[in-house]
Design goal:
The complex is a heterodimer of chains A (333) and B (255). Chain A has 333 residues and is an all-alpha fold. Chain A has 2 domains: 10-213, Arp2/3 complex 21 kDa subunit ARPC3; 227-262 and 277-333, no CATH class. Chain A is built from 11 helices and 2 strands. Chain A has helices at residues 10-53, 71-78, 80-98, 106-131, 136-165, 172-204, 217-221, 228-246, 256-264, 291-321, 324-332; strands at 57-61, 64-67. Chain A has a two-stranded antiparallel sheet. In chain A, helix 1 (10-53) crosses helix 3, helix 1 packs across helix 4 (106-131) and helix 2 packs across helix 3 (80-98). The longest helix of chain A is centred in the N-terminal third of the chain and has 44 residues, at 10-53. Chain A starts with 9 loop residues before the first helix and ends with a helix. The relative contact order of chain A is 0.09. Chain B is mostly helical and 255 residues long. Chain B folds into 2 domains: 16-138 and 227-252, no CATH class; 146-213, no CATH class. Chain B is built from 10 helices and 2 strands. Chain B has helices at 16-19, 22-38, 44-60, 65-71, 76-88, 103-129, 132-141, 146-175, 187-213, 230-252; strands spanning 93-96, 99-102. The chains are: A mainly alpha (333), B mainly alpha (255). The interface between A and B is large, with 90 and 94 residues.
């Protein structure tokens, strides 16, 4: 997401820069009392933590790794204003000292990666806290939802900026679909790692977490840890919700590859997909007249099928790993 | 590790570019990149002039060509995206090597590649010739709010330490046979992130107490009061000056 120079046009760079500077100004004012007195070293060391957290490679699948973005995590641990400042500093230093992200791109890079993930993530966190129980489990799940969606929000923000400041004639739908699709997956990793990280802090020093200042120790202590099963169920629910919502944005236009195919003239030669006549072909459900409902059903079904295939693969791999013979080998040694 | 104040991108040299005051370098870098960003993409010659100006500065800074090229790899994902644009873009089609591609898409790809490469080269030049504490001092002299530069100063100071903490945790986990391959095996990593936060925060509290006891009032004393001279501003100004003049010429010149 560290976009280089020239990715969006100059007007968008200036406009997003103005929004970023304005928000940072507000954040500076809100944190003034807190930071002037005491916490500048603390905020600095927390910034170093977020920087280091971005080096935290966690496994995703089959040995590939992803890394944390940390905007929502920073906001929940330190508060949205301090969190924004901290992540902004990280993004600026990455651009100036590590050549990661363009200088004229700082406006939208700070907006997408610091402002939106922190403030947006914290807003989602507060909303989720409202519907979830006021205990540690609720806080952990809310963190996961906020962290996951903050990444998707940032991707959406980038797509909207592209709508206004595109430097190339790639349609909004294509960019939106690709960005949000990829970041839904990234968001799942971000959600799980952020939630479990907050869970670990909650267990040892709940007083350090800004986002739970309203809870006392007793209500925080009343929970057993959320198991991996809880996370997976929560993740699936969020994915379903998103598939249903996001599918509404999916325009009936052909996607990029289909367009290439049409223009290159080889689409006629392409056989209709084997599932072409299946009820979900072209992401709309045959026989359901209402387009909104039809797209939603298709999106939800897509998630379910992906999940089924994924789980099937997982069990296939896991069963082989736990062959009874393996234990016997160990016993023999 | 024993490099003291240096960091990953810094190249130790004694060149005129290294000696330049940091605020001058920062301002010049921003001005140059801004001028490149607004240059119309059809004016290919303009980018050639910008690249030449930049090459002269790289030469003056005595940066190895291989080093700069290797560091440019950061923008590769975006370059890859740029290569896709002509295929997914709309508009008039032209044939290139027998493949039909979008003409505005080709211009879009060229635009991203040219500007991103020039911009990233400027960033690399800045980072390779300026130590991080100098960059932060330059930011402060350019009136960046003190809270931000102070946070950045502490971040930079403790970054290596905390990254070292992280490495040691990773080593300890690996030594105990932890070799995760799937997302659902990531819990130890996540909990160690939480532990790292607590350690960092508590270290911050101790550092703050120690600083207070030594008379810290909320602002860091600056040992280096040398401000940039007019001459430095003028000399460094020539490079963005060339870029601005080129951009203006590109706007005025018939396409």
């Amino acid at each position: 997401m560290h976009a280089p120079d020239g990715f969006l046009n100059a007007g968008t760079a200036v406009a997003t820069g103005a929004v970023s500077v304005g928000t940072i100004g507000v954040a500076l004012r809100r944190t003034r009392e807190q930071l002037r007195d005491k916490q500048v070293p603390l905020a600095g060391i927390s910034a170093a933590f977020i920087f280091a957290a971005q080096m935290f490679n966690f496994p995703v699948a089959a040995g590939t790794t992803g890394h944390l973005l940390g905007g929502a995590l920073a906001a929940i641990l330190l508060g949205p204003a301090t969190g924004t400042l901290v992540v902004t500093v990280v993004v600026i230093v990455q651009a100036l000292a590590f050549a990661d992200g363009g200088l004229t791109a700082l406006g939208y890079n700070v907006l997408n990666m610091a402002v939106i993930t922190s403030f947006g993530g914290y807003a989602i966190f507060l909303l989720a806290r409202r519907v979830l129980p006021s205990n540690a489990t609720g806080v952990i799940v809310a963190t996961g939802v906020a962290a996951g969606l903050s990444v998707v929000l940032a991707a959406m923000a980038f797509s909207i900026e592209w709508l206004f400041g595109a430097t190339a004639p790639v349609p909004f739908d294509t960019v939106f679909g690709a960005m949000v699709g990829v970041h839904l997956l990234i968001g799942i990793g971000e959600a799980i790692i952020s939630a479990m990280a907050v869970g670990a802090v909650l267990a040892a020093r709940p007083d350090l977490i800004y986002g739970v200042r309203d809870l006392d120790r007793a209500s925080l202590a009343e929970r057993p840890a959320v198991g991996m099963r809880g996370f997976l169920i929560g993740g699936v629910l969020v994915a379903l919700l998103f598939a249903v919502v996001v599918s509404q944005f999916a325009a009936p236009d052909p996607d990029g590859l289909e367009r290439v195919a049409t223009d290159a003239g080889f689409i006629e030669s392409a056989q209709d997909h084997a599932l072409g006549s299946s009820i979900f072909a072209d992401y709309a459900t045959a026989g359901v007249a209402n387009e909104t409902l039809s797209l939603a059903i298709a999106g939800a079904a897509g998630v379910a099928i992906t999940l089924a295939v994924g789980t099937g693969l997982f069990f296939a791999v896991r069963d082989r790993r736990r062959e009874p013979g393996r234990d016997r080998d160990h016993a023999a040694v | 590790m024993g490099a003291g104040h240096a960091h990953a991108l810094y190249v130790h040299e004694h060149s005129p570019v290294h000696r330049l005051a940091p605020e001058v370098k920062l301002a010049a870098a921003f001005a140059f990149v801004l001028a490149v960003a607004v240059t119309p993409r059809e004016a290919m010659w303009a980018f050639a002039i910008d690249a030449t100006a930049l090459a002269v500065v790289l030469r003056l800074a005595r940066l190895p060509v291989g080093f700069v090229l290797a560091r440019l790899a950061v923008i590769l994902p975006f370059i890859a995206f740029a290569f896709l644009i002509p295929f997914v873009g709309s508009g008039d089609r032209v044939d290139v090597l027998g493949v039909s591609v979008s003409q505005p898409g080709l211009w879009g790809a060229w635009n991203v590649i040219a500007k991103a490469t020039l911009g990233a080269t400027v960033s690399i030049l800045l980072a390779a010739t300026t130590e991080i504490p100098s960059i932060l001092r330059g930011m402060a002299r350019l009136r960046v709010p003190e809270t931000l530069t102070a946070i950045a100063t502490f971040m930079v100071r403790y970054l290596e330490l905390i990254a070292g903490d992280l490495r040691r945790m990773r080593t300890a986990m690996t030594a105990r046979g932890y070799d995760p391959r799937w997302l659902w095996q990531a819990r130890p990593i996540a909990t160690s992130a939480g532990a790292l936060f607590i350690r960092s925060y508590e270290r911050g509290e101790r550092v703050h107490a120690a600083m207070l006891s030594r008379g810290y009032t909320g602002t860091m004393p600056s040992l280096d009061r040398r401000a940039a001279t007019i001459r430095e501003w003028l000399v460094a100004g020539t490079v963005p000056g060339v870029a601005v003049a080129t951009a203006v010429a590109a706007f005025l010149a018939p396409a």
